[in-house]
Amino acid sequence: MTSLPNSTASRDIAYHFHPYTNARKHESEGPLVIVKGKGIHVFDEQGQEYIEGMAGLWSTSLGFGEQRLIDAATKQMHELPYYHAFNHKVSTPSVDLAEKLIELAPVKMSKVAFANSGSEANDSVVKFVWYYNNALDRPEKKKIISRIKGYHGVTVASGSMTGLPANHADFDLPITNILHTSCPHYYRFGLEGETEEDFATRMAADLEQMIQEEGPETVAAFIAEPVMGAGGVIVPPATYWEKIQAVLAKYDILLVADEVICGFGRTGESFGSVTFGIKPDIMVMAKALSSSYLPISAVMIADKVYQALADNSAKIGTFGHGYTYAGHPVSAAVALETLKIYEERRLFDHARAVGQHLQAGLRGFADRPFVGEVRGIGLIGAVELVADKAAKTPFDPIGKVGAYLVGRAQAHGLILRNLGDSVAFSPPLIITEAQVDDMLERFGKALEDTQDWLA
Ligand code: PLP
After folding, report:
1. Sign of the four-CA dihedral 21, 397, 261, 161
2. Which atom of ligand 1 has the smallest separation from the CA of 154?
3. What ipTM was estimated for this complex?
4. Which is the closest atom of ligand 1 to the Cα of 287?
5. Pocket of ligand 1 (CB under 6 A)
6. Interatomic CA distance for residues 234 and 183, integer angstroms
7. Most exposed of 3, 53, 83, 197 (fewest Cβ within 10 Å)?
């Protein structure tokens, strides 16, 4: 990389330790510095335009430069730039937002607790679940089951629930009481001759076997994303969710839906839970809650959970958990405005309609060499590359070809993300059909470059 001594890139290398980055590679290659965004596009320092095919990190649902969000933040900054919710205090925007979220919830929910990120919200969930079972005098019912390839964040507890090797290796994770059951990826883990429904039955049987082996009286909760995101965009096989929920109901195990990616239109419905008929006891949301213009996340809890937490807080004298910035009024004001825009512009319907166009377009790549599987729903999708299509053999090492493809996409003005050799798509919900076509044309060029490179 040739960057000038005082450039942003060289100062980035000098001073900034990046998340999710190979630090040594970064020292030699440096960053792509993004300086501006407008709609679905971002621009680098040289003025080069890119389609943000991932909406940042599956997050900027309204795209860049939405004036109404800027105005909502400015207005709230003037009125009350900060307040908290400890010790019976509160700011109005956080109350308005809590009320609105309860109204939007796909199942009857009782209360909303706020945090700042998906990881923090999921850490709160772990503590809520443990506290809940202590409150109910079931101190042994503490284990939480998530899934291999599930993604729930990176803090100590949420990173433990995440089921990806890079989030555990050398971080001394997972902590105790966190278990991982099978990943419901039919293409990868379905057996020869096994139907999707039979595969789903086997996934539910795996879960039930784990519960029985551990002892149902020790298992407190099951956490899952309706569609797995960072694990590779894995859409559950037909009948999966009804079978999983039947197992959980049998053993009095709480169901936590991690809607951090799926929530607010991504799957073409308000929540992934609606798309897949999930009836959670706890729901977690972040990212598109504020279109990611400011950090805010939320945990919604059902009344049976709230009642136990409330009783125990009265017994102890306080609920000894909460963040300085939880329900931050400026973040809450921006989130409220975001939700208003979703409704006024009917963006969930829009995501469903344009999502069909995206899915059809992506499936147009299924016949290409090295494309093993194309999958997705709504405005989330992935193209998985394999060394041998018939045998579904992955490349060795996994991720090298995916990274090459993403690099070529960037050269053609499209920012995507490879999860191993699966290249993910999650554009802003505001994307139009014509812009989807533009995005897929750029992707097609990158795919051709990759095919040439592999030939
Ligand atoms: N849960 C899911 C499903 C996510 O996709 C993510 C982040 O991508 C998180 C939790 C963690 O959120 P954050 O990065 O805001 O901590």
Report:
1. negative
2. 16
3. 0.99
4. 15
5. 57, 117-119, 122, 151-153, 225, 229-230, 258, 260-261, 286
6. 9
7. 197
